Amino acid sequence: MRSSSTHGRSRRRGRVPTAAGGLVAALVLTVTGCGGPGDGGADARAGGGVSRPGAGSGLPGEIADRLREHGVDLDRWKDGGWKDWDREDWLREAQDYVNPVIEGLWGPERMRSAREADKRVTTLDTGADRGVSDPEPAPVEAEPEKTPYHAHAAPVGKVFFDSPEGSMVCSGTVVKDAARPGRSNLVWTAGHCVHAGAGGGWYRNIAFVPSYNDLGASEARLAGATTARIAPYGTWWADWASTSNQWIEGGASTGGDGAAHDYAVLHVTPEQGARSLEETVGAALDIDFSAPSATQVAAMGAWGYPAAPPYNGLRMFKCLDRPGRLSLGPSLPTMYRIGCTMTGGSSGGGWFRVVDGETRLVSNTSIGPVTAGWLAGPRLGPEAEQMYRSMSGAHGDG
């Protein structure tokens, strides 16, 4: 999730504006109002790489046939065949996505051992040839979220997945589904948390755990913890996934040209149970696709589960700051950038702002420096909205 910066530090900015306090208050009000425990349609021109469904523990016949063309035997896959990362056969195209439920795979110890999904570069020149960038923000110390998390930030959770390098972790946010009010099964995260980008393919065993470690227990107190304790609202498997074609074609281990489009949406299904994700956690956030300029926004907040030192991925943190602009290239969209000390593992975590008195998701964590002083996230405009609309209503929740 990280990139690195070697350019000089900017002068420190003033205190976070009072609007940030309102951001937190609005978030709390948003998440405590409820109880607790076809074809994707978007194509390369629209910038959407929408998968076809791999629902439940099986797949529709058409998709199963397509996977057989790639030499994938589903029974063997669920019995451990997913561990074969032959680069020639790594499923890359949107229609090739497969993520059948393997019940019990994500147990407490496996979740705790998952490493952060990093995005790093050795240098980041934000000079005039790179486009428009504001001075590097001063670091903002990440604050731990209050517990229990479901009472203060219910839409936030962790995204787990397997990559050729091992088990990885990101963060994610429950978002509303316009086609299914009150019954959303959609999760917003980063593109690099679901797909490796150029030269790679879809990650495997992608799952979302809302309010992970709800009480913020320490590692010592979680020794021998049951899945129900560390994942009190269940484990939700991504039977559909979508990210931008810009990420699929231009994403890289350093973020690459795809960083400005480093976003994804998951449609999830519970490992057990039948209620929707939104009904289960009691909350979901609207998405702001207006892509406001950083100069128009008084404050943004980033939430997530940082896992790289000095954090261990067990607790939820947040940062509040006035956003600035970051350009990775003159032809690429400007990204948001805020001061924040969260590290890898917070990738994909939602960025929120208050619009007309309501908290809305406006971005997600994509890249940041190795020194953990700031985070950057994409602006969500028409291409992101089309990707979302293609997922909303395209699945058969009933």
TrEMBL record:
The keyword Repeat does not apply. Residues 34-59 have a biased composition (Gly residues). The keyword Signal applies. Residues 116-133 have a biased composition (Basic and acidic residues). Residues 34-61, 116-148 are annotated as: Disordered. Keywords: Signal. This is Secreted protein. It comes from Streptomyces tagetis.
